[in-house]
Amino acid sequence: MPCRRVGNSGLYVSEIGLGLWKWGDPSYDGSRVGDADGFKILDRALELGVFHWDTACSYNLGSGNSERLLGRYFASRPSTAREEVVLATKIHNPVREERVMTADFTPNQQGGSRSYIQYAVEKCLHRLKTDHIDILYLHNPVVNEDGSYRIPLDETMGAMDDLITQGKVRYLGISNHSTQQINDATEMMKQVGKDISRRITVVQNRYNLLDREEVTCKKGGSANDFLHNTEKSGLGMIPYYPLSSGLLTGRYRKGKIDSASGRIIDDKLQNQFLTESKLNKVEVLIKYAEGKKISVPQLAIAWLLAHKEIPSAIAGVSTMEQLEDNVKAVKTRLTPEDLNEIDTLLATA
């Protein structure tokens, strides 16, 4: 499994990663993968060299169960398993206690205050059954509707920096941030970080073959400009929704939607993803992938990895077969000519 360095940091991740959205306790939290299948997939991921695993404290209806599943996995395996994994999680949203379906939260149990950040990370460590987090993301910018920061940014970034001093976190990231918000965060870290090595290392935003401008977190933004800025700032860019929530798996085909199943259907996201335009583009990509003798997911992942700003693609899986298929994407290296041809095909679809 090839590895890449995350931005200008010293951290390496596997080119193929594993997203753990929809992993947890399927008996009540809306997830699709539980311990029995999940543990087997995680074991196989390590055998294949897929050691970059990504979760969040609030996945699966704010249940915290994706982290709990990982904690049970690490507790049941030799310590070498945890030592090998680059473990990423995210804080910002409140999390309920296990099997508590409704809960009220104080302002100190969410957001970006020093109080919340310390509280949330302690909870994450407990659920994950580990003494440190390799990459900790601030899941969303803590801003008001007018874009102003709800919590002083120096407090948020200073508290994140404290976690490194305490040994609880190794690297810092931000998610769902615009270019301006990224610049604000990176500049603030230069002011509050305890030495020059303390920095924001990575940003995680939505990005894939079909959803490009969403990476900017700004209406009308330029994906190319955004990626250029992240590279200039020394950040890696980890895309979430690398398979467009399953649309880039070939599971959803034009004229066959009524018989389709999966996350888009389960989460009632048809109006967002299953548009005529996107379904037309999927048909074009399926034909292109067939010409390359690869699957559509392999094409989508190879397209992401063709961008030097992207160190790893964290595709979610619910079966062993999906993991095995994703891993094969590293065998496909798209050339600039390939990328131009794909863009031309999509523009006319």
Tell me what portion of residues adopts beta-strand conformation: 5-15%
Tell me the number of helical segments per DSSP (H or I, 4 or more residues long). 14
Give the H and E element order. EEEHEHHHEHEHEHEHEHHHHEHH
Query: Strand pairing plus helix content: what structural class?
Result: alpha/beta
Distance between the termini: 34 Å
Helix content: 40-55%
Strand ordering within the main sheet: 9-8-7-6-5-4-3-10
Low-confidence stretches: none
CA-based shape: globular
Arithmetic mean pLDDT: 94
What is the β-strand count? 10
Largest sheet: 8 strands, parallel
Radius of gyration: 20 Å
Task: Describe it.
- By secondary structure, this protein is α/β, with parallel strands linked by helices.
- It is 41% helix and 14% strand.
- The chain has helices at 35-47, 59-62, 65-76, 79-84, 114-128, 153-165, 179-192, 223-232, 263-266, 270-273, 276-292, 296-305, 320-327, 336-347; strands spanning 3-5, 12-14, 16-19, 52-54, 86-91, 133-138, 169-175, 200-206, 236-240, 313-316.
- The strands form two sheets. It has an eight-stranded parallel beta sheet with strand order 9-8-7-6-5-4-3-10. Strands 1-2 form a two-stranded antiparallel ribbon.
- β3 (16-19), α1 and β4 form a beta-alpha-beta unit.
- α3 (65-76) crosses α5 and α6 (153-165) packs across α7.
- The protein is globular and about 50 Å long.
- The two termini are 34 Å apart.
Brief description of this entry?
The protein is 41% helix and 14% strand.
Give the tags:
alpha/beta; 349 residues; globular; eight-stranded parallel sheet; 10 strands; two-stranded antiparallel ribbon
